[in-house]
């Protein structure tokens, strides 16, 4: 997770795959080269990448151009350049080449609202660009080095096989009219639920740095830390703690944090793997720090100005509006949903036992709406005038059917709410 300043930045970064130009960035082993670049329109209405140092110009071409790719890469950059020419967006581009097993080049485009953008400018024709400016509030940022590499490689491969070649985009897979269309996959419901619960992997970090451990052990005055003990010994110690001690231990380091996720004091059964993942996700969603990190608004690209006349881009209505700088914040809690019979009740009881003895943090809620009006928590609506539904109509009819089925006539009762 980025720091709060970066999280609330008014810039949005779009990263596109690009061809590797060795005359611009000589590739060296294990290095990252960054070169500023600008988008320029040619006399024949094409787009070029203009590099200042070295002074090189390259016609825009996608990363799969040699294989006859028919993608929207050029259309994307043409639309972005047009928005820049119309003073709607500021665009700062950087050509980045990273060398690993094979060199990979990307165009990193930092986009922000132009100060002279005119209110009411329609942007319906620029949906391809605007769809990539929505903030990924729930994006997963793995901190484990291996998971980070796997995530980056998967994102690059997915971008290479998309129609926009934007890294991290899942909106534009190859369509039916594309030459490089992958096999069509059916909707897999378990995969959908797994993607929704994958937020639990957000805070995974490296448990033990082998290089640091070896360096400490080779010193003359070597230091032995508690985390150097065998994992099974530490696990036995953690299992003897109560809920409040586990909460305190979770804040020590990542090793104890992930060990504590597996322990539920007072629960005399073993949770299944999917139940442990659900418990971990719910504990994560009850972390008070979720509300303390400002995040970019997912549907409004605003400027830094706090003025009521400041310009912004409404990414839903696709137009320029006047709106002061706005950020979003997460909220604790969530909806725990799963298919019937998978043990939601046991998982929820495990959460209750896991948080036994703890109290909730009465964090003040920001209730300001888009119009800037402030509604004080606790105020009731002045438009409410009595009941619209009678008490006798608010009943659970399912009990009527169950009682009638189990006990026959004469046992039917209504239970008002």
- Global structural class: alpha+beta
Percentage of β-strand residues: 15-25%
- In angstroms, what is the radius of gyration? 27 Å
Element order, helices and strands?
HEEEEHEEHHHHHHHHEEEEEHH
Number of helices: 12
CA distance, first residue to last residue: 43 Å
| Share of residues in helices | 25-40%
How many individual β-strands? 11
Largest sheet: 6 strands, antiparallel
Round the mean pLDDT to the nearest integer and report it. 74
Give start-end ranges of low-pLDDT stretches.
1-7, 176-184, 197-207, 369-389, 391-399, 406-417
**Shape annotation:** globular
Task: List the strand order in the largest sheet.
Answer: 1-6-5-2-3-4
Count of spatially separate domains: 3
Domain F-box: 223-274
GO cellular component, one term: nucleus
Protein name: F-box domain-containing protein
GO biological process, one term: DNA repair
Describe this structure in words.
The protein has 417 residues and is α+β, with helices and mostly antiparallel strands. It folds into 3 domains: 4-177, no CATH class; 210-293 and 329-354, no CATH class; 392-417, no CATH class. It has helices spanning 4-7, 73-85, 127-130, 145-160, 189-197, 210-217, 231-238, 243-250, 254-261, 273-285, 344-354, 397-407, and strands spanning 12-18, 32-41, 47-51, 56-59, 89-99, 103-113, 295-296, 300-302, 311-314, 319-322, 327-328. The strands form 3 sheets. It has a 6-stranded antiparallel sheet. Helix 8 runs antiparallel to helix 9 (254-261) and helix 10 (273-285) crosses helix 11. The longest helix has 16 residues, at 145-160. The two termini are 43 Å apart. The model is unreliable at 1-7, 176-184, 197-207, 369-389, 391-399 and 406-417 (pLDDT under 50).
């Amino acid at each position: 997770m980025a720091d709060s300043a970066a999280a609330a930045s008014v810039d949005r970064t779009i990263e596109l795959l690009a061809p590797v130009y060795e005359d611009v960035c000589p590739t060296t082993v294990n290095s990252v080269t960054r070169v500023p670049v600008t988008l320029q329109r040619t006399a024949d209405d094409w787009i070029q990448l203009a590099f200042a140092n070295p002074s090189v110009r390259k016609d825009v071409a996608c990363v799969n151009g040699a294989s006859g790719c028919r993608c929207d890469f050029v259309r994307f950059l043409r639309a972005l350049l047009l928005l820049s020419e119309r003073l709607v967006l500021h665009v700062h581009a950087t050509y980045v080449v990273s060398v690993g097993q094979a060199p990979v080049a990307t165009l990193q485009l930092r986009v922000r609202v132009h100060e002279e953008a005119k209110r009411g400018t329609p942007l319906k024709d620029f949906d391809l660009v605007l769809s990539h400016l929505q903030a990924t509030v729930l994006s997963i940022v793995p901190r484990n080095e291996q998971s980070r590499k796997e995530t980056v490689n998967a994102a690059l491969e997915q971008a290479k096989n998309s129609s926009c070649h934007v890294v991290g985009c899942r909106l534009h897979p190859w369509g039916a009219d594309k030459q490089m269309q992958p096999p069509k996959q059916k909707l897999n419901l378990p995969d959908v639920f797994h993607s929704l619960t994958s937020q639990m992997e957000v805070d995974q970090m490296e448990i033990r740095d082998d290089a640091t451990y070896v360096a400490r052990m080779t010193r003359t005055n070597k230091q032995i830390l508690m985390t150097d003990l065998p994992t099974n010994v530490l696990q036995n110690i953690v299992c003897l703690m109560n809920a409040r001690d586990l909460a305190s231990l979770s804040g020590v380091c990542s090793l104890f944090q992930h060990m504590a996720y597996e322990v539920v004091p007072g629960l005399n059964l073993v949770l299944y793997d999917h139940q442990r993942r659900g418990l971990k996700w719910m504990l994560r969603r009850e972390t008070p720090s979720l509300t303390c990190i400002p995040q970019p608004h997912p549907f409004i690209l605003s400027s830094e100005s706090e003025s009521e006349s400041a310009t912004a881009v409404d990414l839903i209505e696709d137009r320029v509006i006047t709106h002061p700088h706005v950020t979003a914040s997460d909220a604790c809690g969530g909806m725990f949903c799963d298919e019937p019979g998978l043990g939601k009740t046991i998982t929820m009881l495990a959460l209750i036992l896991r948080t036994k003895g703890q109290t909730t943090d009465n964090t003040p809620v920001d209730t300001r709406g888009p119009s800037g009006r402030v509604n004080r928590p606790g105020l009731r609506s002045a438009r409410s005038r009595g009941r619209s539904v009678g008490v006798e109509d608010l009943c659970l009819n399912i009990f009527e059917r169950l009682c009638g089925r189990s006990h026959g006539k004469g046992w039917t009762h209504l239970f008002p709410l």
